[in-house]
Every structure is written in C-alpha cells, then in structure tokens.
Amino acid sequence: MPGRSDRLHSTNSAGDRGRGSIPDEDVEIIEISEKHGPLYNAIPCMPLPLAVVLCMLNIVVPGMGTFFSSWACLCGCKTKLGKPAKAFGLNLLSALLQMLSFVLIVGWVWSIIWGMNFLQIATQSDHEPVKPYYVRRQSSVVE
C-alpha cells in the first residue's frame, strides 16, 4: 500500500523519522510511589550496624531481631508512623506473630524478609530524594 509506511513513522522535532519517536506534546508524565501498610511503616530507621545485627538475629532466631527493633523505636529511631508508642506496639505484635508462626515456616520466612527490610530502610538516605518513575504513554492509533 503506498503511503501506509509514511503514516506508521512519526517525526521528531528535528524532522528525523525514527522508530518510537513521538512529538513532545503527546508525552504524559505519571509518578508512581509505593504504599505500605502499618506494620512496614512501623519498622524503625536504625543505624546500619544495628540493622545488620538484627537482620542476622532474625535469621537465627525468628522474631528476635524484630523484638529488639521494637525497643529501637523507643530509643529514638524514627519510623514512618511518627508515633513511637504505636510503632513499638506494632513491632512487638509482628515479633510475636513471627515467633508463633515459626512452626509453620511462615514466621521464619517473614522474619528473614523483615530483616532484609531493616537493611533496606537503614541504607536509604533521608537526604536523597526518591527518584520517581516516569512512564511515557503513547497511543497506538495513528492520526
């Protein structure tokens, strides 16, 4: 079909035809952010050495590192909740649940994941802003 290939390619601002290039006015920027539950938000931002020790403790004795991290909430470590008493209670609850569900192996896996979250939160810097993901949307309909 003559002319069909001309419609399939778009031109950029320089006038070049390129695969996947779209004009700037068709770009829509979407920001994506993660939303966590209250148990995750109660994890304190600890110093890295403490986070490593508690992670290892969570691997060896499920829930024990989470138990000690709950006390870190009362010792000045910040959480996303902002309320130390509530964070303390939620961490105690998750430590208890990890210890009780250890028999079903679920608690051990949960405890290991929680220990990895300790490390992840400890390595995140509050000074560096989180870079948002940008998604470029393009219609498959050619005008």
Automatic annotation (TrEMBL):
It is a multi-pass membrane protein. It comes from the Eukaryota. GO terms for cellular component: membrane. InterPro entries: SPEC3/Stum. Pfam families: Spec3 (PF15795). It is found in: Membrane. This is Protein SPEC3. Its main location: membrane. The chain crosses the membrane at residues 48-75, 87-110. Keywords: Membrane, Transmembrane, Transmembrane helix. Residues 1-22 are annotated as: Disordered.
